[in-house]
Amino acid sequence: MLEHLGEKLILHVTLGNFSFSFDILTVIMSWVVIAVLVVVALILRRGLGQDIEEKPSRTQAILESLIDLLKGQLMSSFSSDKLARELFPFVSTVFMFVLVSNWLSVIPYCESPTKDLNVTLSLALLVFVMSQLLAVRMRGGIRYLKGFLEPYPFMLPLNIVSEIAKPISHSFRLFGNTFGGAILVTVVSAKFAPVLVPAALNAFYGLFVGAIQAFVFAILTVAYINVAVES
Amino acid sequence: MEEAQNIVGQISGADIATAAKYLAAGFVMAIGSIGSAIGEGIVAAHALDGMARQPEMEGALLRTMVLGQAITESTGIYSLVVAIVLLFVV
Amino acid sequence: MHLEWGKVVTSLNWTFVFNLVNFAILLYVLKRLLFKPAIEYLDRRREQVATQMETARKNEEQAKKLVAERTGALQTAYKQSRHIVEAARAQAEEIIGQGKDGAKKEVEHILENARAQIDQEQAEAKHELRRSYAEIAVLGASRVLGREVNLDDHRRLLDDLLSELEEDTLRMKL
Questions:
Q1: What is the pLDDT of residues B14-55, one digit of tens each?
Q2: What interhelical angle do A81-103 and A58-73 show, nearest 10?
Q3: CA gap B17, A32 in Å, rounded
Q4: Do C15 and A118 make contact, defined as CB atoms within 8 angstroms?
């Protein structure tokens, strides 16, 4: 069990003279996450009544409280309402994807896709590119480039480094937490206590830390976009 | 004496590197997590102070606290990543 | 195509691209499936609630106005009724006063009449008394004198006596 600790299963595929490799387990698990989210979305969608006058059903109440929670906790950090409305689906999808990914490690034979740096880095870079594009769109190209010379021109390298450090710390935080939790659970269950303790540890790292980190990831997404657009 | 010299003679450069790797990983986590732990504690304490003073601000304070802790945690995460790289990559 | 254990835990490979594609698909599906209809629904309901609130506010305003009108009318009616009652009371008092005056006058009239009658009767009685006194006096005198006293001869004397007597007796009697 421990001989493959910290390693991952990689599939090498060669199509003609084009070859590529990917982490097969991670990709399958992210498909599972997507399937779970789509099923949940379908269930919630079915509960959404068409008639406004109708009394809300149970699933609709769940959907509404979910949307209220996302809006109140995540979107309220946006300084502009328009941007918040526009980015609500994106941030919510990021949050739910990371949350379900983290929670997936609780199920046996499943592992979190966020255990893989590729997944977290792709999300973080997506957020980074998005924030820069939004900053250019909201402030204009020249003012955006001028922003790197603030407050003094010699701070330019520092500003660039701090911008680049954002996606790195963003992705490594999620990756480190999930991966560290998984390693800890594996080591404890293989070396110290094979029963009961790993379950509790797994619940703690998978459910509690997973939820916190998903929230942190989403709120940092909001904060990075907001800072890039504002300053 | 002879035996000890024998053992020392058997230690190769790779063994020393492995030992240094594990040692470094342990030190990285031990020292690197101090700062972020203290920082997060300070953030939580002050947030709690604020919550006790103004319970109606709890939601905003909690959100800001989590954000601040996440940013404070960055250094700890960096050390974790360095430790992971030391353990599994180097 | 073969599987192997990758040594490098932080290695980047095509998973990165796959995950981006996966996430884009998920974002699109969730947006179409969940967020768009849900947000549209919530917006529609918020609008409806706002319009309903507006209607309710208007209705309430109207109701308040109506209540104010009613209260004003009621107060006017109350004032009017009080006015009417006061007027009626004044009239009644006037009537009663008039009645009292009339009765008083009548009483006075009756009293006067009675007084006049009494006076007249008194005068008559005095006169009668005086005459009977005179006769008694004459009778007594004739007895004392032993002869007939001519009433006419001693009229003057008698009259003086009578008047003295009369005054005394009347004073005593009354």
A1: 888 889 999 999 999 999 999 999 999 999 999 999 999 999
A2: 110
A3: 41
A4: yes
